[in-house]
UniProtKB/TrEMBL annotation:
Keywords annotated in UniProt: Cell membrane, Membrane, Transmembrane, Transmembrane helix
Family: Belongs to the UPF0702 family.
UniProt-recorded name of the protein: DUF421 domain-containing protein
Occurrences of domain YetF-like N-terminal transmembrane (ranges): 18-83
Cellular component aspect of the GO annotation: plasma membrane
Location(s), subcellular: Cell membrane
Sequence intervals crossing the membrane: 6-27, 39-58, 64-86
Topology class, membrane: Multi-pass membrane protein
Length: 171
């Protein structure tokens, strides 16, 4: 249970080092977008890369070359999704969510909060993180496509105007 063999330890050291180097090289070649936290597909690739690395490290039934091929496949699929997203609005809408307005001119949009499963406390925490004490001090709080909360407080929005690209969630 605690120790099988020196050969097993040597395999983890050698394969782990080579797999790590291969992953770093692949990520450098594939660009910054491969590990960006922009949408669900980027998150899936990040988790899958970690899972693949762990499998290559610990499973004797997975050869190093198979693991490197799996890394390349995941990075290639992520590149393809990003490439198609940039070139096709329809595909982009399919793989990415839209930003959603959660607070507008100091008023919580309860329907949007419920639909996005965000609590008022989470919005208030985002406000405090940006130096605002109260909701009426900001123009808007937007749930971004990557799950972060953006606080817009420098100027009040006119009437029902929303920041560009932001939709109201159905109430």
């Amino acid at each position: 249970m605690f120790f099988d063999s020196w050969a097993g330890l040597a395999r983890v050291l050698v394969v782990g080092t080579l797999a790590y180097v291969a992953l770093v090289v692949l990520l450098r070649v594939s660009g910054k977008r491969t590990l960006a936290k922009l949408n669900a597909f980027d998150f899936i690739v990040t988790v899958a890369l970690g899972s693949t690395l762990a499998t290559v490290l610990l499973s004797k039934s997975v050869a190093l070359v198979e693991g490197i091929l799996a890394f390349a496949l995941l990075a290639g699929l992520q590149f393809l999704v990003a490439w198609l997203s940039v070139r096709s609005e329809r595909f982009d809408a399919l793989v990415k969510s839209e930003p959603v307005l959660l607070l507008h001119q100091g008023r919580f949009l309860d329907g949007a909060l419920r639909a996005q499963r965000v609590t008022r406390d989470e919005v208030l925490s985002a406000l405090r993180g940006q130096g605002f004490a109260r909701p009426d001090q900001v123009s808007a709080v937007v749930l971004e496509t990557d799950g972060t909360l953006s606080v817009l407080g420098a100027q009040r929005l006119e009437g029902d105007a929303r920041p560009p690209g932001v939709r109201r969630s159905p109430a």
